[in-house]
Specification:
Radius of gyration: 34 Å
Strand content: 5-15%
Distance between the termini: 62 Å
Strand order of the largest sheet: 1-2
Helix content: 55-70%
Largest sheet: 2 strands, antiparallel
């Protein structure tokens, strides 16, 4: 990888009209390479990404618990899983939400 940094520094010096010995370019290149390796830690990017990952893991765990809770539900025995009752009033009828399951059809 150091050839990459040496080439970058050498090109930058040429563009800037600076002259340096190959030893000087190697020293600057090693500093640039070291700075690049520690950039994420110095700017907090490594910490931010690990916090983001922890937050996402927490959300996933919560969703998995909610899914498990939903999968454990059974059909409401009062409304037979429909979530409502149809009531007849002579020639008219009406629909009423099941009070036992709250209209979800599952308990």
């Amino acid at each position: 990888m150091s050839d990459y940094w040496t080439d970058c520094i050498s090109e930058a010096f040429d563009d800037a009209g600076l002259s340096a010995t190959s030893e000087q370019i190697d020293i600057v290149a090693s500093w640039a390479e070291g700075a690049h390796e520690h950039f994420g830690m110095a700017m907090g990017h490594d910490v931010a990404s690990s916090n983001f990952r922890a937050e996402q893991d927490s959300k996933i765990e919560k969703l998995e618990r909610e899914l498990q809770k939903e999968q454990n539900k059974r059909g409401c025995t009062k409304c037979r899983g429909h979530g409502y009752f149809i009531e007849n009033y002579g020639t008219r009828s009406g629909q009423t939400e099941c009070h036992h399951c709250g209209g979800t059809g599952k308990v």
